[in-house]
User: Fold this.
Amino acid sequence: MSAMTGSDPADDDRVARRSNDPVDEAGSARATVDPHGIVTGWSKGARRLLGYRSAEIIGRPAALLLAGEPPTQTLRSLRTLPRWNGAVRLLHRDGHRLTVDVLAHRREPEQEPDGEDVGAGEWFLVSSLARPVPPVQDDALVMWAFARSPSATALYDTGLRLRRANADMERVIGLPEAAMQGLRVSEIVVDPEGDRTEQCMRRALETGEQQHLRQALHLVGHDRESIWTTSFTPVRDAEGTVRGVLLSAHDMTEEHLARERLALLNDASVRIGSTLDLARTAQELADVAVPRLADFVTVDLLPAIEGGDDPPTGPPTSPVMLRRVANQSVLEGCPEAVVEYGAVAVYPDESPAAECLAADRPLIRKVTEPAIGRWASQVPDRADRVRRYGFHSVLAVPMRARGITLGVATFSRHRRPEPFEQDDLLLGEEITARAAVCIDNARRYTRERRTSLTLQSSLLPQRLPPQAAVDVASRYLPASTQAGVGGDWFDVIPLSGARVALVVGDVVGHGIQASATMGRLRTAVRTLADVDLPPDELLTHLDDLVIHLSAEAERAADTDGGIGATCLYAVYDPVSRRCTLARAGHPVPALTTPDGTVEFLDVPAGPPLGLGGLPFEATEIELPEGSVLALYTDGLVEARGHDIDEGLDVLRATLARQTSSLEDTCDTVLRTLLPERPTDDVALLMARTRALDAAHVATWDVLSDPASVAETRKNACRQLDVWGLDEAAFVTELIVSELVTNAIRYGEAPIQLRLIRDRNLICEVSDASSTAPHLRRARTFDEGGRGLLLVAQLTQSWGTRHTYTGKTIWAEQELPASP
Assistant:
C-alpha cells in the first residue's frame, strides 16, 4: 500500500533513497486520531509529509489538515468499516495542497469481562512516502521472487517495505497492490503479529537464511481468526547480494481446526466419565467444551432420570422442564447463568433447548433480536443476559444414550465472533454423545447403588439387641459413588450365660452380589453362634460355606471369579471377663484399657474365608471392666494416601483421646481417618465391657447324688430371696430340679449350678459329659421324658453349649418389669 504525495521530485528522490535504508521509520507518514477527531499521535514521516512538528498538531482537530470537506461516502466508510483506504486531499503547513493515498485502521476498544466497553477506540492512519520503482527496473527481481511463489506472496526490499504482491496476497489482505506499496507489514496489518513478522524479515536479511513463522491473525474481512505458516526467503541478485525478502504465506486454518477438533475429541474421551457421579460427568462435558468449542455451556437433564429411573419415551411434553446440573464459561463465575445448580427451570418452546428435544436432533440457531423478544415474555431474566453478554450463536444437542433421552447440552458463543458451523455441530454432537453414555452409566449405577444400599441396609442390624455384657456403638459408611457399595457388615449377637458375640466381616467386591453374599454370611454366623460354637470352630464352618458359595457362583456365571471374605469373631463373658477371639484374614482389633492405653491384640492371623484346608486359631484374654474393643474393616485404615501401618498409627492415636461417649469416639475415628470420598466401605463396632460381679452371680457345686437335689433347690430359693425375686421362685425350683436331676442321672461329675441375674434370670447346670439332652414326646404310661418339655414351656429360651470339659444346659426366664 502506498501514498503518492504532491512534493518536489528532488525531495521524492531523497525520500526514495532513504526508504532503502534498513527499517526506515520515517519512510511513511503515520498519525492517530481519537473518536472525537483530535490528533493523538504524529510521526517523523508525517512531519516530512505535511511540515507540522508534533507539538504543533497533537491535541488539535485533524480537520485542520484537510483541504476541503471529505466526500460523504468517505465519512460513512470511516464510521462503519474496520479499515479504509483511498485518496485524501491534505493541506501542507506552508499552505499548498497535495493528494495522498491513505490507509486507515480502526483500533477496536478493549472490553471488560462483563461486556462493557473501555474507551471508544481510535483511528491509525498511514501513508507511504516512498516512490514506487518503475517496473522495468524491477523485472529481474520480480522474476526471481515470483517464479517459485505457490501461495500468497509479497516482495519486500531491504528497508522492509513492500515492492510487489501477487494476486493471492491482495485477496488475503483485501487491498490492491498499489495501496500496499511502500508500506511495512506492521502498517499493512495492525496486529501484534506484524512486529514478529518484521523481526523474522530482519533475521532473513542479516543471516541470509530462510526463516519460518506460525501465526494466528485477525485479518480485516475475515470472520474468524486464521492460522498461517509464513516463510521468509532472502532474495539474491546474480552476484549473490541480498536485495530483498520474499514473504510466502500458507493458510493452515482448516488443518489447524481439524487438529483442534481431534485434540478436543481425544481430551473428551479422557476427561469425560472419570467417575460414576452424574453431576460430575456433566460438569466434565462443560469443562472440556469451554473455551475450545464455546464461550458458555450448560448441561440440563430431565428431572425424570433422577434416582436412576428411566424417563418416559418420546419427546418431553410442553412446557419443557429441565434441571441444571452443570455449566461453564470463559468468564469467571459464569455470570451468564441464570438457572442455579440443581434448580428446575422452564424452557420456552422456541428456545434452542426445547426445539432440539422436540426435533430429537442437534441444531444451530442464530440469536436475533426478534427471537430474544419472543423469549423475553416468558423468561425475561434469560433474555436480559443474552442481550447483555452479546450471545450471537447457539448450538443445542440432545443427550441420548441407549435409546433414552436424558437432557440437552447447549453451547453458546458471545466472545468468539464466528458463528457455529456444520463442523462444530458434528463435534458438539460427538462429545455430547460420549458424555450421554457416561451419564447413562452413572444413572444406571445410581439405580444399582440404591438397590444395593437398600438390600444392605435391610441385612445390617437395624437396632442392636439389649444385653448386659457390653455397651456398644457402631457406624457403617458406604463407599463413594465411584467405588460402589461393598459387602462390609457387623453384628452383635446375645449368647447364653449373659455372654455376647461381636462380629465384623468384609466380602470382597462391590455391588448387589457383594451385598447379597454379605447377607448370607451374616445369617450363617447368627445360626452358628446360636449353637454356641467356639470362635475358631465357627470360622471353620463359615469357611466351608464360602467355598460352597464360590463354587455355586462359578457354575452359575461360568467364570473363575469366586467369592472371598474376611471375618473377626469375638465372644465376651461378663462373668469371667474373658474374651475369646479368632480372625480369618481380618485386621486385628484395638483394645483401649481404662487407663487410656491403646494396643492391637495379638490374634493369630487365619487365612481369608474361602481358601479352605487351613486351620483357625483362637486366643483368650481377660479384659478389665470398662475396656473398649474396636472392631473395624480394612476400609478404615487402608484409605487412599497412606498404607495400613500409617492408618493403624492414626487409629491408635485417635482412640487414645478422651471422649464423652462411644458415639463421639466413633465420629472422631471416622472424621480423622477417612477422606471426604472414601474408596471402600467402612464398618466400625465399638464395645465397652461390663462385668457381672458376685452380687449378680451365685454358684454351687452339686454332689452326684439324687439326695442333693433338694438342697440345691433350697440354695436357689435363698438366693432369689436375696435378689428380691420371690415371684420367680416356683418356676426356678422346677427348672433347677429338672436340670440337676438330669445331670446326676445322665451326666458325669463334677456338676455345678450357676444362677445369673442379668436383664433376665439365667439358670445353668454344667457337667463333664458331652452328651446333649433333647426334647422327645413322652407316651401315656412313660415315667419320664417330660422334664425338658416342661422347662421349654416355662422359660423364654433354653439350650446346650459344649465346652472343652463337657457341656452346660441353660434356661433363661424373663423377669417381671421393675415397678
